[in-house]
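[job 4471] stage=fold_predict status=RUNNING
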Amino acid sequence: MNPDLRKTLEALLAIPVAALGTLHQGAPFVSMVPVATHAEGLLIHVSGLAAHTQDLRTDPRMSLLFMAPLSPEADPLALPRVTLQGEAREVERDNPDYDLAARTYLARFQQAEQTLGLGDFTFFLLRPSSGRLVAGFGRALSLATPEILGALPH
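[job 4471] inference complete, writing structure tokens
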């Protein structure tokens, strides 16, 4: 990947919120989630009451969309964005990885400390298997897992 495209990908993956796509009763469903990075992918901390949480428990396939902010003069079709596809794995409280997930998430979102104590919130580790980077109009490329993981901020 050329250095300009890598910089674009790194900037997009540093955005703290993404659109999460799940399958909700067999139909597409999209919601907004705060996202923290992890060595194996991305972390979300979600309520068990949320539709996307139930969706991921039923079918772990997911998609994430990170998008650069749109300025008034920009062409929306040239907006830099990256879509990731992969699977989600719930990180249960009794899992040894839970404490690392909590520390990692809190390092990015200190205000989430209050939701860590709520019993219905859980972590999911989102592991990307592929992606598609659009760096501008006519500038797109497919991504493999190593390229995605290598561009995540740590």
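[job 4471] summary: The CA atoms of residues 59 and 109 lie 27 Å apart.
[job 4471] exit 0
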